[in-house]
Amino acid sequence: MSDVLDVSRPTPHVAKVWLNRPEVRNAFNDDVIAALTATFTELAKDEALRVVVLGAHGKAFCAGADLNWMKTMAGYSWDQNRADAQRLADMLWTLDQCPVPVIGRIQGDCYAGGMGLAAICDVLVAVEGATFCLSEARLGLLPATISPYVARALGVQASRRYMVTAERFSAVRAHALGMVHELATPETLDAKVDELVATLVDNGPKATRECKRLVQDVGGLPITEALRSETARRIADVRASDEGREGLASFLGKRPPGWLP
Known about the structure:
Layout: E1 5-11, E2 14-19, H1 30-43, E3 51-56, H2 67-73, H3 78-96, E4 102-106, E5 110-111, H4 113-119, E6 123-127, E7 131-133, H5 147-154, H6 156-165, E8 168-170, H7 171-177, E9 182-184, H8 189-202, H9 205-218, H10 225-239, H11 242-252
Parallel strand pairs: 2-3, 3-4, 4-6, 5-7, 6-9
Antiparallel strand pairs: 1-2, 7-8
Helix pairs in contact: 1-3, 4-5, 5-6
């Protein structure tokens, strides 16, 4: 266990990355940003990996920026602020571009930058009692670096409200808006996450990566002739691949596919 992250590999196909600063509600600082960037950079290189679970120790998932870090930033010049913000933006991009699905496990409150982490997850599971908040406007700030991911996950119209009001809203509300995919009780949270992990591990590993990339590439694009041609090329590539042929053969032969662990 590291100082700021708890990273484990329960199986070769599964990684768990836990924020590990419960004493400060898992708030961000430079060390957390650097550790997340380095960890996900390495995980992205692992061909055996099929899913990452992103969670946190303690009562809160992430309370946003660390107070001591904010005190330091208060004395920064514009150039220092720009460089600091760029590191956060680059960390979020690194997590968002992880080639395998990321399951978010939200066991408690998720504020400010923590919402950026939640928003990059491909599947988000939250306890019903968790609270979400884009709190930056209360401090005279704005959620700039996390905004592309939050607006994508929460929706533009809901983001317009919650970014300008800085209101807290419940996990039940986040579920109704589509950001949270599954609600759970504290007692059933891990079982639901484990169920999703097992589902992903059973899928074709290369196909799962390509599915994630497909949504990233085509989401929001107009359906043009070029896009239709590109999607036809992609399915042809997969059908002709070893994994695609094995998947079809196993289905027709009523046997498990060869990639199952």
